[in-house]
Every structure is written in structure tokens, then in C-alpha cells.
# Entry
Amino acid sequence: MATVIGRHDEKIILQDALKSNRAELIVVYGRRRIGKTYLVGEVYKQHICFAFSGMHKSTYKNQLKNFNLALQNYFPKSKDANDWLGAFYQLEKYLNTLRGKKKKVVFIDEFPWLDTRKSGFLSAFDRFWNSYASKRSDLVVVVCGSAASYFIKNIIRNKGGLHNRLTQKIQLMPFNLHETEQFLKHKNIRFTRYDILQLYMSMGGVPHYLDKINCGESVAQAIDRLCFTKNGFLQQEFHQVFASLFDQHDNHESIIRTLANVRKGLTRNVLLKKSKINSGGTLTKTLAELEDSGFIEKYLPYKGNNDALYRLSDEYSLFYLKFIEHVKPSKQAHWMKMQTRQSYKAWLGFSFETVCFKHVEQIKAGLGIAGVNSVYGSWIEKKNDDGAQIDLLIDRDDRVINLCEMKFYHSPFVLDKKYVQEMAHKKNAFASVTKTRKALFVTFISTYGLLQNQYSKQHVQNQLTMEHLYINL
# Structure
């Protein structure tokens, strides 16, 4: 397991299942390329007694045949089953031959793909767990896949035979910045933290994407090769991601495209209008699936109206739609030229905000308030032409609110008179509208910090650098 980077909490869950005195049913889900199969395979390497994976968009007949062939590799005496009830019965016969009290792991990967229309797969699995596996204290059954909405509906919130049968669930998320740095170091790639941050903002913390980085190339070279050449791994990944996860993936792409065009998020009603999805019910389902899969996030504006805002939180999708989609692949150093343009600098600012939102716990640790109960969000005031907006605030129980300014810059950022006047306007508007009695601390989060001058000393109570985003929690 030394090769599993990060995933501390997830490894503990899987390891504890081996020590329990009961049967365990564990769901592991997360987006495509996130490392689900690798994690389970590495942690349970010495314990898997049967492993099987569904096939994408295959027929019921072929899925069943694939299962029969897989089982025969472990149990040559097994007979070919004609349906899923018979298939799980053959699996039970095999498991009955295994001796010893040591935990045995049954690993079914790409579980949702097996549940084809009218196949009876889920009800057969229901019977397998309730009538057999749950009665064996030496079994751990792990079901895995990318379709988060499927697992939430059919297993986690199942209202039938699998209701409350799940013993553990693991939603595997992309690496944070610390884990990304550790992963690259494991590959002997020694980027600076500024470089890693730029890389993270273009492809996120998806392990399989990061694994494509070559030792000896710069971040710009890696992005050029992966995103802008004809056979670049990330050149067409955007379409494959949604097609593999969702049945009606055109709706999901439409939502992602709509959110990519705005900086601060949209309400459900505005999304319904802008995305041109026909049904409100379809929109609700699509939004839930994207949120469950980690592509978007939903949050309520701080002490504003009750209409939730949806914001694109997937770095690669944002990068693809902004820079890759409309560029013809070539062998030229395209990205090295793009980095000098103003559109790139504007994108850096928005993407840096997204990264900060994902690392709020690290920001709290950097501020020394990790143990203080708090909530975070955004605040927008648009009642007049002179409205104000705070992208990130942290409302603390110790009677302080951090009003955060986030800036991605290639050197220490210089505050001038105009900027501090804008900050003062935001602070005064926030105090006036919210009527808060808490202390308001202007908090600056930037790559290399602030250049110390009269404005930074007088108007900024806290400042953090990108180093704080790499804190290992």
C-alpha cells in the first residue's frame, strides 16, 4: 500500500472492514479516472478472492458470459449460469469452498454497467447479499463504479431489499494540492508549487491525468502535449467523461457549458433558461448527478435570498471549454503562446478562486482557526448599480468574519490606493447590509503574498500565500 498516495481516510475504512466481526458491504464511487479500482486493488491485494468488472454498454447476455468466464478462473468447477440468480448461486458455491477465518473480499467493479434493462441483476445481487453474504462474517463485498447517482439511488438510498444494508461508503474525490504534490514527487517530477498550482488549475487533481505528466518536461510542455496535440490524452477527454458517466449526457454537457460562461454561479431558474433543457424535472436530476459526481457545487449566498447558486468546480472542464475546444490540434507550442494573452490571465484569477474554495480547510488551518466552528460562502449585493461582491467569506463562531480576497499573481501583489478603496467599499457594504456585529478581517490569499507597504499594513488583517493551500490535514 506504500504506492497509494493520499487517500488516508479511505484506506482506514477499507482496512477496518478487514478487522470487523461482521460481513461488510462497501460502495466505492467517484468520477472516471479517479483511482477507485487502483485503491481497492492495492489495499485488498492479499485478500481478494473474486474480482469481476462490468463492460461499458454491453448486453445482458455478454455481461453474464463475462461473469461466467471470470468465475471459472477462480472456480473451474463452476457451471455457466443462464441468469444473474444462477450466476450469484455459482459464486456462493465457490465461496463455500474457501476455508479459514481470514476476511475474503469479493470485488465487483463497474457495478452499474451490469444492471442492464430487464436483466434482474440488482434483485439477484440483493438476494446474494441478504440471503448469503451478510450471514458470513468473513466476507467483504465491495461494489465500485463511476455513476454516483446510480449508487445513491439504488444502494445508498435503496428502499427495497438493500435498504440500510450498506456498512460503508467511500466517495473518492480528486487529489488536493498536497496529494497532487506527493503524487508528482512519487513520479520523480519536481515542479515548484507555483507550477503545480498552474497544472492543477488546468486538469485538477485527477490521478490518471497527473500520471500522464512526463519527468523532464515543464508544465507548459506537458499541457501542450496532453491538450493541444492531435493524439493528446486530454484533447477529447471532455466528451468521453460525460458519455461514460451519464445516459443523457447532452444535458450534463449543456449545464457544464452554461456554468463555464459565468464566474459566480447561477440559480436553478436561470440555469433552466440558459441551458435550454426542456423539463424542470430533467434539470433537477441532471444537477443532482453532476453535484454527486463532483463536477459542480451548490451553495447558498451568505444571508441573501434562499435561491441556491450552482458553480462549476471541475478544473479540467473549465480549461477545456475555455482553451482546448476551439483550437485545432497541432505540433506547435500553442500553450506557451497562450500564456501571454489577457484571456489566460483572467482565467487564472477565476480558476484560483475555485481552487481556494476547494481548500477552505487548509485556509482555516493557515489562519489558525481549524478548531473554530465556522461556515463559508459568497456574498453578493446587487440592489443598485454600485453593488458589492465578496467571493469568499468565513463566518466564525469566535465573532470574526474573514472577508477573503484571492489573487493569482507571478510575484508579490502590490496594493494601491484604488484597490484598498474597492476593498473598503465591499467591507462597508457588507457591514451595512448584513447588520453584523462581528469583527470584519480583510484576508488576502495570493500566490506569493503582498508587498509590504502602507496600504497592506493598514487595510489587511491576515494574509496567506499558496504555501498554505498545500497544508497536509
Q: What stands out?
A: Residues 177-235+329-351 form one domain. The radius of gyration is 25 Å. The chain has a mean pLDDT of 91.
